[in-house]
Amino acid sequence: MKREIELITETKPKKRRAVQLSTLLDYQIPRLKLCLVKEDGNQKPPFPAIKSAVDAANLLRPLHFAPEEHFVSLHLNTKFEVIGLHEVSHGTLSASLVHPREVFKAALVANSYAILVCHNHPSGARLAPSKEDFETTKQLIAAGKVLGVSVLDHLILGLTSRNKAEKSDREHFEIFSFRENHPEIWDC
Length: 188
What we know:
The chain is of the alpha+beta class and about 190 residues long. The chain is built from 6 helices and 5 strands. α5 (about 130-145) links the parallel β3 (about 115-120) and β4. It has 2 domains: about 1-30, no CATH class; about 55-185, Cytidine Deaminase, domain 2 (3-Layer(aba) Sandwich). α4 packs parallel to α5 (about 130-145). The protein starts with a helix and ends in a 7-residue tail after the last helix. It has a 5-stranded mixed β-sheet, sandwiched between helices.
């Protein structure tokens, strides 16, 4: 180690010194490189700004029809315009595993100012958040505060028949917003 320090501090021509520095900085482990790959390049900005849970739900309309549970995040810039969508988890009929690490990985790489997370309830059951939904929301809000990426809301989307007594093909969209129904979660 002492020899390396001497090589750096010796006065030699710049070219030779650069070679020596690169040799000294040659790690014996693989280097990792992060890059952002945007899929579906045919969509052109500007994408709409999110001003309400309904705005987000309209963008996420395909999620209403998904046969399994999906957990996604909308990535927003400082004007709350959508810069991307990330599917965090794709689960089963009744569950989807979510960890803050996976949620915020894409948010940080995309340089998101804020995120809005959403999952669907494909079973057609009443849109009531589970205990796990509350815990996940609290975890994400806390992680977002540490990382400097605000969590604006956590939505649950569902699709139900208008009149359960009536056998009808007519269905409508349901939205549950944690921010609207439980704003106290953000006050912690």
